[in-house]
Amino acid sequence: MSTLAHTMMTAARAADSGLAGPGELDRYPYAEAPGADRVGAPSWEGADPELGRVGRRAAGSRGRGLHGQLVQQLGQMIVSGDLGADRPLVPEEIGQRFEVSRTVVRESLRVLEAKGLVSARPNVGTRVRPVSDWNLLDPDIIEWRAFGPQRDDQRRELSELRWTIEPLAARLAAGHGREDIQQRLADMVEIMGHAMGQGDALTFSRADAEFHSLLIQVAGNRMLEHLSGIVSAALQVSGGPVTGCDRPNEASLAHHARIVDTLAAGDGAGAEAAMRQLLAVHPEVERVVPAPREH
Fold first, then answer.
1. Buried-exposed string 183-201: b where 16+ CB fall within 10 A, e elsewhere
2. What is the pLDDT of residues 147-172, one digit of tens each?
3. By Cβ atoms counted within 10 A, which residue in 11, 84, 125, 258 is the most buried?
4. Which residues pair with 128 in a beta bridge?
5. Phi first, then psi: what are they for 117, rounded to 5°?
6. Could you tell me which of 83, 68, 71, 70 has the C-alpha nearest to residue 130?
């Protein structure tokens, strides 16, 4: 096993065990304070009881401290519909409900505003914005939608986007013979092979996500590169449409290796075809992404 593979698998096991890695000591699940349900309860009724559990899981993986956790909680409540469009968000009420400072509430609302989820205007206050205003390409919103009532639409849309983005990226990448990136892609395939042999699905998924992100970066199209976060989010969201990246097996591994080979050979058409085969390696995907129409 290469040093890279060993390092990546060790890191994945540490993350899976809940052990904090370097720089991650401030990541911890949001613990709702005793009596929080009684504070401001009339304004927060109807919340999905599962929402807090999902929010705490998401906060542990991405949010940092109270600020990141509040962003996760409020973001999921908005995306799930518990806080509907045009709903006023009163900072004092939020601070009491979650027992956080005004500074934490203010910074959290600014993050949500940047994502298009809320708007703040003088003499009007902060209100929830309609879905049409959301930044649906934001990785956080992708994750929140994938765990909420819109999960089916989100996963279908993600799959359709992948079928649009990744075959094109593979074709373009074949024209950019960067040996360092190609070696990195080969390393990811090696890691996936070792992880599959040891039944380590977490390491496999992380190497897979790195593989697809690198492929888009080497395509040489900066606009495509900005979409790499969509693919990463799609791979990290559990329960999505079944593709060759969702179930570690020999066929999936072979298609990844085939993509590396076609890139090394500068075969754009072959790389595109290999990516399409990877995304369609399981027949279930045909129910999610229809075949291209013939004109």
1. ebbbbbbbbbbbbbeeebe
2. 888 888 888 888 888 898 999 999 99
3. 258
4. 118
5. -85, -30
6. 83
Task: Determine the residue type at 191.
Answer: I
Nearest CA to 241 out of 290, 203, 207 is that of: 290
Q: Is 226 exposed, middle or buried (0-12, 13-18, 19+ CB in 10 A)?
A: exposed
Concatenated DSSP letters of 138-193? SHHHHHHHHTSTTHHHHHHHHHHHHHHHHHHHHHHHTT---HHHHHHHHHHHHHHH
Q: Over 60: is that where the pLDDT of 48 sits?
A: no
Please tell me the pTM assigned to this model.
0.65
Show the tokens assigned to 156.
């279908």
Q: What value does the mean pLDDT take over residues 198-214?
A: 90
125-128 and 88-89 strand pairing: antiparallel
Residue 67, phi then psi, degrees to nearest 5: -60, -50
